[in-house]
Amino acid sequence: MSDQIIDRTNRIKLLLVDDEEGFVNVIANRMSKRGIDTTKALSGTDAIQALRKQDFDAAVLDLKMEDMDGIEVLKIFKKMVPKMPVIMLTGHGSERAAKEGIEQGAFDYLSKPCELQELVDKILEAVRKGG
Length: 131
Hints:
Elements: E1 12-17, H1 21-33, E2 36-41, H2 44-53, E3 58-62, H3 70-80, E4 86-90, H4 95-103, E5 108-111, H5 116-129
Parallel strand pairs: 1-2, 1-3, 3-4, 4-5
């Protein structure tokens, strides 16, 4: 698969939600190089505000954040934009929470850290099947 996934006129709009600023910045930068426009949110509250202002093709949402639990944010996302696919990121072996996310409407989940290409592929799959 080539590095340039989508032409400039049809770029995927991704909402990336994680309270680890370094991680968010690195992932957003790498997504941009692959034709995915990424809006960064460093908290659940920021993510909800971003979703009120603009439409996204998909969201990547960390399960464990300081201000709000990822499942809580997921429930709000699903009320706001039911068709938007949400990929949960889970660390610290929180498999049970990730499965709860699927029950609450998440598209899928990946364990952190994950390979960037695996995340990109999951986003592309979610956008194709989702919204």
